[in-house]
Amino acid sequence: MISVVRRTFIVFALVGALVGCSAPTDQYPKLSSDGLYFKVPRSWSEVPENVLATFEAKNTDQAALDRLAVVRWQAAYAPSRVSASQVFSAKPSDLPIVYIRVRDLYTDERDAVSLNTLRDAIFPITKWSADPTLAHFTSLLDEELSFKGGAGVHERYSFSQDSGALQVVDQSALLSPDRNTLYLLVVRCSESCFQKNQKAIEAISASLVVRGARG
User: Fold this and answer.
1) Number of structural domains in the chain
2) pLDDT by residue (tens digit) across 86-106?
3) What is the extent of the structural domain holding 164?
4) Average pLDDT over every residue of 68-74
5) Predicted confidence band at 213 (pLDDT cuts at 50, 70, 90)?
6) I want to staple 121 with a disulfide (CB 3.0 to 4.6 A). Which of 43, 128, 136, 173 is the partner?
7) Angle at 145 between CA 140 and CA 151, to 5 degrees
8) CATH of the domain at 196
């Protein structure tokens, strides 16, 4: 007969094994060639690269199509399924939307890029900073980032367009050391959504790593 002490030990050992083998809570999207990765909750849904590219290809703006032509990787994530149009919309979202984009730069872009152009990678926030009344703009965070594989800025700001609801954008924009590649990670949603999901959003933003191309 197995003693009570031994049975108790076996139970605790089994529980410990189950805990140790539990499924990871996060997924790690990555671009291995550039040593880039970040984390999002495993339960979140992905909008695949081909879906985003197909939607973007419908754009009639030639400059946007030119930029799409040099995109090396992009993907989006959200707590539930969202469409490509929701990913690229400038309207506030009721749930956090994460967007990662890696693209090469054209020669004229490489020559002109600066910390301010990185800040303006999505919205013209340097213009809004000069006149916050233009979009009810408020800067919440402005700091420089530096990794082995890239350097740039991390911005967090709130704004509204056409007197609509406020939204909060957390944006990291980095330039590779050779100035050939732009790395962009954006997490955005409405102000109320951000307040509810701030911890998760900040964890995603803080997890970004760019180690650079393997030599």
Assistant:
1) 1
2) 999 999 999 999 999 999 999
3) 24-210
4) 96
5) confident
6) 173
7) 135
8) 3.40.1000.10
